[in-house]
Amino acid sequence: MCKSPEVGKDRLDMRGVGPSVPAPTVATTMPGKLFNKIPCLLSPCPSDPVPVGSLLFAAQRLLLRSNSLKLELLIGFWGLHLSPILGESLTNEEIQDQRGRKLPRVREHQGPLTLLQGCQPQWQPTFCVLRGDGRLEWFSHKEEYESGGRPLGSAALTGYTLLTSQREYLCLLDDLCPSSCGDLAQEEPLRVLEEPVSFVLFLVHPFRAHLCFCACSREAQRAWRLSLQGAIRLRATVLQRSRAPAACAFLDAVRLYRRRRGYAGGDDATLGSDAEVLSAELMRELLPVLRAQTLRGLRGAGRARARACAEFLDAVHAAVMAWVSSGLRAFQPEKDALLAALERMVRTDLEHILQQRALGAQRIEAEIQDSVEVCLCGKVDPQLPQLTLALLSPVEATLQAVRTLLIRGMDRLCHYLRKNPSGTQLRREVYEFGEMPWDPELMQACYREAERIHNHLAQLAKPFGFLGIRSLVFGAQDLAQQLMAAAVTTFLQLADQCLTSALDCSQAAAQLEKVRGLVLKKFSSDSETTLWRFTRDWLLGIFWPFVWSELEMRCNLEPLEVDGDILATGCQVLTTEGVYRDVIQGLLLQRIDRELKKVLGASGRAS
User: Fold this and answer.
1) What is the CA radius of gyration of the chain?
2) Which residue has the higher pLDDT, 541 or 58?
3) Which string of DSSP letters, residue by residue, matches 428-454?
4) Which pLDDT does position 145 carry in this prediction?
5) Which pLDDT score is estimated for 104?
6) Contact, 322 vs 543, CB < 8 A?
7) How do residues 251-291 score in pLDDT, each as one tens digit?
8) 214 - beta bridge partners?
């Protein structure tokens, strides 16, 4: 089992990984300003079961009691996973470069929205701006925004869920804080929420304040809905899109930490930046205790108490986020030094590392192959065909929707060119074509196909403890956007090379037809390769945690220690757990590849 450092130690020993990691520098008490808004949420009545002072003290104590050790433990796991992932990335350097992903962005959106705010909540007009990085800001009026004034408030949309039904939101509040018979007698209902409101946009989060907006029309509501959904996805998948070894190691470290706590297949727990992921993980652990200790001390009952609870948790989350960010900043110099040292070591000893890895894998495979085969035959093989088809169907439909949209855009450009348009009109059409990947309205048909994954896959993957459906849907939507962006870029680059001022409109249109054919041919090839890789990676993500858990019991595999079991003396890149993982995943991938070949044929396989 993992040996937790003793309370009071200021370092976590990372033998076999690199230099010891200093504990994050944190104050002995949480920042007081972050808790300033909490007292107004609490009932001042002296007869309350939980006094305000005790409530604040309990929250601070919970935040400090064990979280320093948890953050150090996660950093330790990060260092342990970094070495083998860095070795693998350098071994496959050319492949990794080819797989680099263009980061999506959010098209900035702005306009008037009415916001529910205040201690006695009332609907108040605001001017809202959705930034390109997925941050929502709201101002008292448009002129304040245009003059560069500070916003009334802002929120990074990581982890939020968007609801467009008032009834659904009220049901959510009821589930958060069910009213007892006694509560109903004293409760002053949130009448402002219970009165019918049109064109609502409710942004809800498990431990952030709820943001309640309403638009002025159905068209405005739809435009905001599509933009906000894109921003939520952008913020969520920042680490999943990265191919950097440090990001991959961080994700593996969080998964290992969660697996140690009894959660498997928890990809939805890795949505957001590193600080956001760690803060969310700590908040999930604090949440049951915070609810139990604060609920009775919060003002109101039922829905009013549910909103007050969300605002209280928002203040606690802000404190946790500030504390985690401080810890990660303190760790950054160590991380940079560790990365540089490991890269030098791997480049120097790469041949020796690969030899040791092959020898270790050969020995381990001979030891566990029978047990792995029993597990795969009994648990995986019966479900693999059905899961493969359930995943492939909506992803194929998503890629087909991208192709249809791409053809429509190219045909539109060719059509305008044949009509001998003015230079201004043609430039506008070219600009709109280039913006297609970032236009949420145009891309909605593709994203809607990706959302079908939830209906197709959720129940089938449930027996394997898979908790990553939201990540999977976001990943398919990112895939659609990336393929569209690559195709649009290719078309514009080739068109720029072949179109000259010497060509008349008819000749230029003929050249664009040739470019269109080349782009579609490349898109078909990219789609086949991408479909194979995406489906393969996610089938592995569904089955792998379950198979590892089964084999831990069958083969009595020892859990990974924080200091690691170094397989090759002096080589931090090879650990016994890492080679076990490679062997088991290799055997599992043989099954997945065989099934994909049946369905897709060899043409879809990445070379």
Assistant:
1) 27
2) 541
3) HHHHHHHTGGG-HHHHHHHHHHHHHHH
4) 94
5) 56
6) no
7) 888 887 787 777 765 678 889 998 999 899 888 888 887 77
8) 114, 200
pLDDT in tens, 37-71: 333 333 333 333 333 344 444 555 555 444 444 55
145 and 129 Cβ atoms separated by less than 8 Å? yes
Other beta carbons within 10 angstroms of residue 307's beta carbon come to 23
Q: Answer yes or no: are the C-beta atoms of 406 and 489 closer than 8 Å.
A: no
Residue-level pLDDT at 59:
52
Is residue 591 within 8 Å of 381, Cβ to Cβ? yes
Distant-in-sequence, close-in-space partners of 383: CB < 8 Å, separation ≥ 6:
460, 463, 464
The residues pairing with 607 across neighbouring beta strands, listed in sequence order, are none
Q: How far is CA 234 from the centre of its chain?
A: 8
Q: What is residue 34's DSSP assignment?
A: G
Of 41-55, 291-305, 444-458, 498-512, minimum mean pLDDT range = 41-55
Residue 596: is its pLDDT beyond 80? yes
Handedness of CA 346, 581, 360, 79 (dihedral sign): positive
- Give the alpha-carbon dihedral of 488, 489, 490, 493, to 10 degrees: 120
Higher pLDDT, 605 or 41: 605
Amino acid present at 488: V
Torsion of CA 144, 149, 153, 155, to 10 degrees: 110
Task: Name the DSSP class of 65.
Answer: H
Query: Which one, of 355, 372, 338, 365, lies nearest residue 85 by Cα?
Result: 338
AA identity, residue 208: R
What are the φ and ψ backbone dihedral angles of 139, each rounded to 5 degrees? Answer: -120, 165
CA distance 531 to 289: 43
Contact (CB, 8 A) for 571 and 353? yes
Q: Which residues lie across from 128 on neighbouring strands?
A: 111, 138
Cβ-based neighbour number of residue 4 at 10 Å = 14
C-beta of residue 217 within 8 angstroms of C-beta of residue 199 = yes
Q: What are the phi and psi torsion angles at 262 (to 5°)?
A: 95, 10
Write out the two tokens for 143.
Answer: 């002129």
- Residue that is written with structure tokens 């396989």 in the block: 605
Which residue type does 8 have? Answer: G
DSSP 558-589: PPPPTT--EEETTEEEEEHHHHHHHHHHHHHH
One-letter amino acid for residue 406 of the chain: L
Closest-CA residue to 323 (of 256, 369, 370, 275): 275
Q: Residue count of the chain, please give it.
A: 607
Q: What are phi and psi of 116, to 5 degrees?
A: -85, 115
Phi-psi region of 472 (alpha: psi -120 to 50; beta: other; left: phi over 0): alpha
